[in-house]
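During the no-cost extension, the postdoctoral fellow (Dr. R.K.) reprocessed legacy sequence entries with the updated structure-token encoder. One reprocessed record is reproduced below for audit purposes.
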Amino acid sequence: TNFWMFQMGVARMARYTCRYLEFNSLESRAYFAGLLHDIGKLLLLHLHPFGFEAVLDYSRREQVPLSVAEQAFLGATTREMAGHFAKAHGLRSSYGNVMRWVDDPQQCPVEDAVLVASVSLARELCRQNRVGWSGEALRDQPRPIAETPGWTILRERIFPSFNLEKFEAEAHAECRELKQMLHGRFGLAAPA
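Re-encoded structure tokens follow.
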């Protein structure tokens, strides 16, 4: 349940980010990409039902990122698996790029950089605000938006007068409301 809440949260926050930053043409694709971004974990669960649990346990015990544990156990990351899955099943390359590069948007092809960065930032916001559960350990001190990999790309595409502090405060407030909604504490609103 918490994994699905995380997926839904990332989708909603990716759309919110695109809307707020006025990347209006990307809103619907960002939403869908947010839903798909962690499909590699589902692939791992399908292929090796106990593999994901072993990877999580190793990651926690050794205090290493999931990608390091995945590489140690599988010889590949779930991000790489998802990228291959997307290509093999004919998904749009932009969705494959989100699945593959959401943790490192600076490595994705330039034509999908804004989409990948928007989902990456949404993912970071949901993790910081504990909207669902991504499977990854939280940092002791969350990093400001300005220091996230997604923002390094997005900041180059906004107006110089953009108020990052206001956006950050409003995005965190949106995450808190979203978290309440996903936990059933508010009536479910239809997606915009």
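The CA atoms of residues 27 and 118 lie 10 Å apart. The first helix runs from residue 2 to 20. The remaining legacy entries will be reprocessed before the final report is submitted.
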